[in-house]
Every structure is written in structure tokens, then in C-alpha cells.
Protein 1
Amino acid sequence: MTTKNNRENIFSQLRKDLVSGTWVLFSTKRNQRPDCFKNRERKNEKEKNEKDCLFCKENISNQEEDTLVYTKKDNDWSLKVFPNKFPALSSEYKDINKREYGPFEVIDGIGYHEVLVTEDHNLDMAELEVIQIAEILDAYQDRYVSLMNRKHIKYISIFKNYGYDAGASIRHPHSQIVAMPIIDPDVFRSINGSEEYFRVHTECVHCVMIGWEKESGKRMIFENEDFIVVCPFVSRVSFEMRVYPKRHLSYFERITDVQKIKLAEAMKFCLSKLKKNLNDASYNMFLHTSPCDGKTYDHYHWHFEIFPKTNTWAGLELSTGIEICAILPERAAEILRK
């Protein structure tokens, strides 16, 4: 039987900041990962071939409790999703155990943490065919819909870390899906800003930005019938990119099959340009979409953000929160379009 004391040791914790109102996740299970706290300079020691890789077929096919598997004509798998072995959040218990420590609010880190793996050890998203990227997007949607209505889940974060500098501890191409009992603080700020703009101007702030970028053309990288890729006018890092649906859409989970193909085209183009023009730079890619907490967010506009690891936070950034970007987005877009 689990007591309160050993439950404290088992669970990750979410602690609420009294000043900002945002949450910080403390996850002790994550420090059990093989690379945890080791010298970050070991990046060249990553798994270089399939026999050493934890996510390649011979090492993973019969070991994981799969939640989703896509198969090919030969019945071999092309993509699979399974629970993260070292989860940031735990699905072991079903209540958040809200409590107070002095003036602070604490809840247990209840949720779901899954990994999405594609079959080829050496082909990242930039090198896949458009239809293969669309399959990844389809899996994102499938798992989102499966997790969004579960008890206590308010937001689902879908993200990809590419390269050791971006936090990818395993070389094999993969993404992660985290369903959590809070709204992502970055999304929370984005939603609040969008809501305030809509209240004042009665239109979507992202639609306004998209219209202006299309008219200007200076920061556009790619456009098809349904999606546009831009380097934002206020980029937070050099060569930052955002992938927007051109039509106002608030909920990623409602994406259609046709839209998946068009989004896959956009991702293929911009990630290929990043790989070629920035010497295969590490990056973080993540989805910003409306929360799944039962409220209405029709003012919001979902999108993907891509952050190459081109900036390092130092004293000014940490002390002020003001990010320093070394290249204008107009110039970044010009380079990426080449």
C-alpha cells in the first residue's frame, strides 16, 4: 500500500510560483535516464548505428507496451507510440492530491508521457517523404484525441527535440507527447495575449500577423493552399520559424487528412532548409494549440514553432527575460529560402 510519504517520493510534483502564477515541474524519475547529469560534451558518443540504439527495431519491437502502431504492407511497423520509460508525469494514480505548503500550492505530477518513434534510424523528419511526415501528424492527432478527455488533463504538449544540444538524449528520430493537469505556461501567456487582442480589436492576432506577413513577403519562407511558414517579426531566437494554418483554426485535433498533407509539405520544406543552410543545426519543434480543459478558445490560432539552437541564455537573458537575437528575421528568411 502506498503511504503519503512514499507517494511524495514516487510522484513528480508541480509547484505554483506565487508571483508569476505559472507552474514548475519537478520530476525525479527523469534523473534515472542513462545520460542524466553526465558531461554535455559527450554529444558525439551518441548511438551511431542501429545495434546500439534503444529505439531501433531489433531492440524495441518486443519490449514496449505499444499504444499505437502503424504498419506497412509487409506488416512490419513504420511508426509506433509507447509510454516513456522515464516519464516526466505519471499515470500511476488518478487524483492530483492538491495541497498547500505554507503559501505555496502543490499538486502531484499526474498525466501521460509517450514517445513516438519512426522506423529509420538515419532519417529525420527533414529527410522523410511528405506522406511519412503526414503519418506522424496523424499519430499526433490520434494520441491527442485519445488523451484529451481523460481525467485531470488540461493540456497536451507535442514536441520534438532534434540533436543533443536540443535535449535529444537518443539519436533515433522521435517525438514526445505529454498530457498534463495544467496549461503549459508558455501557451497560457500566448492565449492570454490572443484573448486580450481579440477583446480590443475583435479579430485574431495571429490572423492579423499572417495577413501582414503575406503582404510584406520579407519573412515568408513557404506557402501552400493551407499553410504558411514565416520567421516571426519578433523572433526570440535566430532563424525561429512558425508554421500557421492560413485559415483561422483553434484546435489542432480537428485537422483533416488533406490539411495533414499540406502541413507535411510545409514542415518538409522548412526543416530541409534548416538542415541545409544551418549545417544540420539542433532544434526544438512544438505545437501550440487550444487547451483541452473544457473551455472555449475560439480566439486562438494553433501553430507549430521551430526553435533552432542558435542562442544561449546568459546573464542578461536570465536576469531580465529579454532574449537577444543575433540576426534580423528578414535576413534569416532570406537565407532559409535559398
Protein 2
Amino acid sequence: MTDIKETRLPGVGIRFDLPLQSGDHVVVINHQSGRVEIMLCREEDPDTCTEALRLSRDDAKALAEVLGQSRVTEEVTRMQLSLEGLAIDWVSVDVASACANCTLHDIEHQDAEAAAVVAVIRDGATIAAPPSTFILRPGDVAIAVGTQEGVESLSRLLQSG
């Protein structure tokens, strides 16, 4: 199986490099906005890529469905940025999570680590600075901010409960 190289691009998104059996490689850039760029880079000049496709979030999801099961699943939407002790992470709330359908207050006080949900993406809309009474639903994407340890702990809670 081919290894896919993942490179975080702070402020942009995530870049994935997929080497092909032909020697060429495909570069996929998943932007934080949801836009996706797919480029083909030739073996003879790996630094020169031609832009092949520019897809919306919905187009990219449809293409992924057509291509079949992905080795890179929800990690595409999980972007993380660490700056001098501050971590930011986009975390999907799992259906099976014990934290699904709980208020932010209940969730953020389940553990001693330092992290908070500062925004939620629900049905394509961003809810900035939700109140502590806000209820997270399965399928929401919570933007967590805090220490690296705190964000990782909060992520575990939201994904498995």
C-alpha cells in the first residue's frame, strides 16, 4: 500500500502527497474553507505541479465517494495548529460520543485540562462564541482552543465520550 505524506500548512489547511506507481505524484490540498485543490506533479520535476482540479467541499465529498473507501478519512477535516503553547483543533462530534447532546458547560468541566470550544460548525454555518448552555449535536465540528494536552483531552471526549 502506498504511503501518503501529510503536511500541515498553518493558516491554509493540509497537504497530502500521494506517490503514483508511474513515478508521478498527486498533491491534494484541503483548505480550511473546505475548498480542495488536486494537482499532478511529474516525476521528472517533482516541484512543478499543474493544477488539475479545484473542487468545492461538496464536489470533493462526491469524488471521494466515487473513488471508494478512503485511507484518509475524517483526518481531512481535522486540522490542528500549535503556536507557542496554544493549540487549535477542529473536532467532529461522533454519534457514539457520550458528549453528544450535552451542553458546552458539561463537556468542558469533565476534565481538568485547559481547553474550551470557541466556535461550532453546524450544517455549514459557523456559530462563533457559543454560550455555555449551547448543546453539541452529533455531526457538529467543534473548534477547540487551549493547551495541547487540553485540546487532545477535549477531542477524545468529543469523539468517544
Protein 3
Amino acid sequence: MTTFLLGAAAFILGTVTLGLVRILRGPGNADRMLAAQLLGTGGVAALLLLGVATGVGAVSEVGLLLALLAAFGSVAFVTGGGRSSDASAADTRGAARSEPE
């Protein structure tokens, strides 16, 4: 059973590695944030599998801490971290339209 759990953890880490490509080449901030969430979720899954396979409880606790940090990262993005470039672009477009001719 340990071999299966370690193999599953390696497979998850491989798929997360492919998700890193989206973070680097994502067309927008939302795509990058979703890829970062994938990274966090996959990291949590891999750490929990490794914790169960090796019997080390501290690895599972690190995985749960990573899940908590990923949730805070999403909240920070939604509340204002991802709007900065979009808001400035909307302000410049709105200012150009509101000028009288």
C-alpha cells in the first residue's frame, strides 16, 4: 500500500508541475491565480499522501498549513490583489470617454 501511495503522490506532483506552465504563460491574472490554486491543492494532496505513506504526522500538518495559506491567497486575490491592473485600465478608458468634444 505504501508503494501505491507514493506513486499517487508522484503522479500528483507531475500534474502540478504541468500546472506551473500556466502560471508562467497564463494569459491573464485570473488564469494565473487558478493555476496557483491548483499548485496549492496538488501540494496538499501530495503532502497528505506522503504523510500517510511514511507515517510522519508532521508532513500532514504541513499540508494542512499549505491549504490554509492557499485559501488566504485566494481571498487576497479576490478582494483586491487581482484588480489593480484591470482597474487602472478601466479608469483610463472611462476618462477618455467622459471628456467632452
Protein 4
Amino acid sequence: MPNAVLETSGVLYDLRRFVYLGAIYSGTHEVFLTRKDTGLNTLEKLRAASGVRVGAQEVGHVNYINGRVFAYVLGMKEPKFVTGYSGPEVDAAILQREVDARVTPPDTILRRQREWIEKGLVDFHAILEVPKGEKHPHPAFAKLSDLESFAGSPWERELVTAVRAFRMIGQPQVLPPGTPRDRAQILQEAMRKTFKDPGFYKEYKKLTGDETVPLMPEELESAIKNLPREPEVIELLKKLAGPDALPPR
């Protein structure tokens, strides 16, 4: 999804032409954290520190982009982005002091690294609420400020809006352009009935271990249509998705 909006080379499709069935998993919150022993336990210290190492997957990966968006909007000073990890490997890199920080969903921490909270091994600095205004139920995250509150300009707020939209869209189910309307409507109604069935949520939890907040077909279509497309926002996103140093604020 981000690559289509960013008009990345090789993307040969238009998001607005697909027929949308909905999204089984509509994304989740994201938090920015640092390892406790870095001593960066306040926003002021985080901003003052130079060369904080932020772990992520490859350049262009959603977690890489999100990490750079957090670092940019929070006003970090020349952070270094260390790539080449899988998700669990970034966790290990945090514990082994290979990197100092990362972005990750709160639910992943609760499932995979709950001791980070229980033993106070990390500090949490900000959260990306998906959707905006929905506080995470765990007290460690409910008190965090949403990333948008740190935006210093309209374009930065639009940037956060775009990233939030990408997270909310999650894992969309689509039909190709030109699908006959009657067939599309049958499948869309089937998805609505599935998402309204309590048994769906129980089975999803059983199979994945996660909760799910699906998007209905019309909600997904609306989210796609409302993705920010202002040239200034797209250009900023492109820079943040790339390998170069963060652009000046």
C-alpha cells in the first residue's frame, strides 16, 4: 500500500481501481521505545542524544519507515538506522545492546516480551494510535502521547495521518478491477456476515493468538480514498522511506 501512494518504481497498479472486500486485520498501535540502560528516559534526553541506533528490517519495510517517522516527528538528532533484522531479531538486538531503540506494536510486546514492562527494561516515548483517539487498554501504553501531538507543522500532521491510515488498512482483501458488480456485492456481503459472526473472532484468536479488528468493505474503501496525496506529504514520505539521513524539519 505505501509503495503505491509513494509511486515507487515498479508499482503498476492504481489503488482506486480495485474492488475492496474488507480487511481481516486492520492494523494496530505502534510504540517507540528505548533500552532502559541508555538513560534516555525523557523526551528531552532522547532529543539531545546523537546517533541513537534504531533497529529495523530492511530499508523500505513498514517498521523501518515507521521508525524513521517517529524519529523525525519526535525531533531526534542524527539517529542511525540499523537494518537487516527480522522482528524477533530486533528484540534480541535490543537486549544484546546492538541497537538502542525500535518501533513495535504494543500487543507484540505483551505477547513476546512482557518482561520488558514487568522488569522495566525499556522506556516508552510515544504511540501511534490506530485509529486516532483509541487508547491502548494496557496502562503502560494508555498514558503515552499520540505521535501527532509532536508534529510541528501541517505537513508533519499529514505525514502522521498517512502512516496511521497505512496501519489501519492493514491486510486488505481485494478483487481485480473490472470484477462484475453483482459478484463483488455477493462477496462483500459474505465478508460483512463473517465480520459480524462472534465465532470468527474466537477462531482468529485461536489460530493466531491475536485479537482482530476488521474493516468492513465500505470502511476499507473509504480509507483508501482518503489516503493523503498532497505532493509535499508524498515527497516527505519518500525521503523517510529511503536510505538517506533524515530530512531537516
